[in-house]
Amino acid sequence: MFVSVRDLKVHFPAEEGLIRAVDGLTFSVESGKTLAIVGESGSGKTAASLAMLGLHGPRAQVSGEISIGGEQIVGASQTTLRQLRGERMAMIFQDPLTAMHPYHRIGEQIIEAYRAHHRVSSKAASQRALDLLDRVGMADPRRTFESYPHQLSGGMRQRVMIAMALSCDPQLLIADEPTTALDVTVQAQILDLLKDLQREFGSAIILITHDLGVVAEMADDVAVMYAGRAVETGSVRDVFYRPSHPYTWGLLESVPRLDLHRERLTAIPGSPPALAALPRGCAFRPRCAFAAQVADGRCASDIPNAHDVGENHAIRCHLSEAARSEARALHAASTETKP
Amino acid sequence: MLRFILRRTLFGLLTLWLITLAVFVLFYMATPGDPALMFAGEFATADQIAMVRARLGLDQPVHIQYLRYMWALLHFDFGMSFVNQEEVLTTILRRMPATISLALGSVGIWLLVAIPAGIFSARRSGQASDRLITMMALAGMSFPTFVVGTLLFYVFFFLLTNAGFPVFPSGGFVPITRDPGEWLRHMLLPWATLAVVGTGTYTRIARGSMLETLNQDYVRTARAKGLGERRVMYKHALPPAMTPVMTLVGLDLGGLLGGTIITERIWGLNGVGSLAVQAVETGDLPVIMGTVLIAALFVVLANLLVDVLQALRDPRVRLG
């Protein structure tokens, strides 16, 4: 496994208590593959991805294990992290306008990323920047090179961000909601670009998103996050066609689909728990329609462990196999009603 | 860029014009008492007063008075002092060196102290050193200038001189052109007087602004690129963080160049501030008007300068 994350925890001490942004996250990604981390806002997706670059400040308490190409990230020195960032793993952020420096030209910003890890002349670095801009599909690389971020369109900015992230051929690319701020047509272009580049460079991609459409388009594997934990992990096929966690059911039912006739979308009742005051036991229990079917109130007392429900398909849920099949049959019936 | 400067300059001129208009209304149309009487003196006869009124043009209709006033202003002619019959401009120009020395020196000192202190504090936000700096800044801000000045006077002039170390003079001004060493010796305590409050205020602003900038996405991007901490701080975070500081410097420097009243008084600096006070005390209308207009001119100029500097730094302002 190129990327392996074991029992990752990211906690922030705060006045209202310890905020458990990530609380025991485990997943892995192979080179050339894409893992999508899906979840609502506040489920810990971004906190987890920042931890992978070691970008959390001193106030965050990060524990667990993150290994990227054999390199341990948690507990690594700032010097080590700085050498790895950009070089081995790079990140694409949600809003490319705010993620780029408003005072610096695009060219400068790419060159800076490249020269952070390569001792080359400024001429060679400029050439590299121009090549990258060309590679990410800028029509006029030289002009983009001379531009400032605010002079570009949203899609162009995200291409530039990608060029910047790719400047040192990272083996892991973390894309945090890379298309959320973009128009739908531009979204598709950016996703295609990412796929092309992945094919070309063979890097692993971790795609953070709340958009299940993007997941279906891009990912090989999915981790569904809820309140800082992965409640279901598996291949896109398994998770989309044989979802096994009640939260995943809810998530899939809240997506509009053209192939199904539904009177209205089913929202998951309630809202995500406050991360500083997680309920005892399963964090999803207060919103779960199936908790009553679990004996001894275990949902309210024990945090469910991850267990396999298929090959490479695991969930964190106390629901028995039988109860789950029954519920899934119901779920399947509700989603397969053809118009 | 040129268009930006042009627009800002026009805006500055408009501001200045509005101020001159306000001054005209205040001094020509709403003055309590008769300016001609003040000018002619207590013992003047009715004829003499009428003569003075005619000479000052006060017997003319308002619009003629206004046109004459604007015409004179455009030639930097603020008229003659009622008190000593000297050109107001000459008086003000004679007072400028002290005021300029005080303003530039104190602003320079407080920026040199406050910006590093603010950055240091922001980078250690929440830690003991940050709390200490924040507390000291608040204390500095809370001291009124006259308390700081009096305290400095007592400690560094009175106590030090009594102890046999006459390092600092009690006050007065020596032009830098006459003796740079003496100029510095005379300016240090006045600078410190203003710098205490200024340093406090600017440390807080620099700290707040730096904290905000450090939380910006582009600073995170800089770190994600694998840049060193120093480069992240000084190339990525610091320049945008200085924007509010610069804006405030524009206002404060403009204000200080218009004259400071308390500090000039304490240290016996005969600057524009003390000139304004004297003029108010003696009812010397042309001098009051002159100092008000000069102060306004400096505020507008300093702001214009800051705007242009800001545009040079930030392409969104320059090209936006």
Automatic annotation (TrEMBL), chain A:
The lineage of its organism: Bacteria, Pseudomonadati, Pseudomonadota, Alphaproteobacteria, Hyphomicrobiales. It comes from the Bacteria. One of its GO terms (biological process) is transmembrane transport. Its main location: membrane. This is Peptide/nickel transport system ATP-binding protein. The keyword Kinase does not apply. It comes from Devosia limi DSM 17137. It is a peripheral membrane protein. Pfam families: ABC_tran, oligo_HPY. It is found in: Cell inner membrane. GO terms for cellular component: plasma membrane. Belongs to the ABC transporter superfamily. Keywords: ATP-binding, Cell membrane, Membrane, Nucleotide-binding, Transport. The keyword Acetylation does not apply. GO terms for molecular function: ATP binding; ATP hydrolysis activity. Residues 5-252 form the ABC transporter domain.
UniProtKB/TrEMBL annotation, chain B:
GO terms for molecular function: dipeptide transmembrane transporter activity. Keywords: Cell membrane, Membrane, Transmembrane, Transmembrane helix, Transport. It holds the Pfam family BPD_transp_1. The chain crosses the membrane at residues 9-30, 96-120, 132-160, 188-205, 245-267, 287-309. The keyword Hydrolase does not apply. Residues 96-310 form the ABC transmembrane type-1 domain. It is a multi-pass membrane protein. InterPro entries: BPD_transp_1_N, MetI-like, MetI-like_sf. GO terms for cellular component: plasma membrane. It is found in: Cell membrane. Belongs to the binding-protein-dependent transport system permease family. This is ABC transporter permease. It comes from Devosia limi DSM 17137.
